[in-house]
Amino acid sequence: MRVPEGTPPDALSLASGVAGEGVLITGAGGAIGGAAARVFAAAGARLALTDLELGSLEATAAMLGSGAEAHLLRANLRDADGRAALLEDATAALGRIDSLVHAAAVIVRRAELGEVTEADWALQEEINLRATFFLARDVAERMVAGGEGGRIVLLTSQAWWTGGLEGSTVYAATKGGVVSLTRGFSRNYAPHGVLVNCVAPGAVDTPMLHEGSDAAKLEQLRASIPLRRFAEPEELASVILFLASDHARYISGATLNVTGGQLAY
């Protein structure tokens, strides 16, 4: 149950305020999306989990605590009809989407920029940027129409700041676009009580990190991080939960850098 506006800070409990609320998590079959599902379930949220493959969602659901409410919704976010159907199904399952956690993304790594193809660009732009815009916008519009506000947490990458490595510049460009969308959405929707923020993960120990990277490159990356280690997915999930919680009720338009000290700005 959300606390009323104007509640004094000393009256806030340690609870996150998401208990009983409906949370839609995209990319829930992946490492960070799956960790977010576990953290929100532990906080008492009611979940609609979506990914491209039902099997990955079932694996995530199996790791949730007993008694967790989780509706598994297969969806192709690259397709406009698929996004529309997802919102209808999630709303029907939850009654209302109080928070959106958009963790779905794709990366295509090439050894050199000269190897990047038009198809590489189209895939990453359509999933990482276009789908993010339309899905988040449509959720925000529903939140505005409902009159109760809401939370939207998008996922970018430290690559939005660094420009990416080698052939991942297209991915970095799409993630830079997500930061701009976060700022623009916040200006549009914060007056209606819809808070839109973004999390910028650094190197997280996920299959995406290891895909297309050899051991030497990974060790070089690890050495560049002041904490000298990769993040665990749960260390991103806790930040995502914070942004959806009552503790972040005066934060909107922000990008939280979670990179182990690799980025400092």
Describe the structure.
With 265 residues, the protein is of the alpha/beta class. It has one domain (19-258): NAD(P)-binding Rossmann-like Domain (Rossmann fold), CATH 3.40.50.720. 43% of the residues lie in helices and 14% in strands. It is built from 9 helices and 7 strands; from the N terminus they run E-H-E-H-E-H-E-H-E-H-H-E-H-H-H-E. A 7-stranded parallel β-sheet has the order 3-2-1-4-5-6-7, sandwiched between helices. Strand 1, helix 1 (31-42) and strand 2 (46-51) form a beta-alpha-beta unit. Helix 1 packs across helix 9, helix 3 (80-94) runs parallel beside helix 4 and helix 4 runs parallel beside helix 6. The longest helix has 29 residues, at 118-146.
Task: List the keywords.
265 residues; alpha/beta; Rossmann fold; seven-stranded parallel sheet; 9 helices; 7 strands; 43% helix
CATH-assigned fold name: Rossmann fold
Order of helices and strands: EHEHEHEHEHHEHHHE
Q: Taking Cα atoms only, what radius of gyration do you get, to the nearest Å? A: 18 Å
The strands making up the biggest β-sheet line up spatially as 3-2-1-4-5-6-7
**Model regions low in confidence, pLDDT < 50 over at least 5 residues:** none
The portion of residues assigned to helices is 40-55%
Look at the structure and give the CATH class. Alpha Beta
Mean pLDDT: 91
CATH homologous superfamily placement? NAD(P)-binding Rossmann-like Domain
Extended strand count: 7
User: What is the overall shape?
Assistant: globular
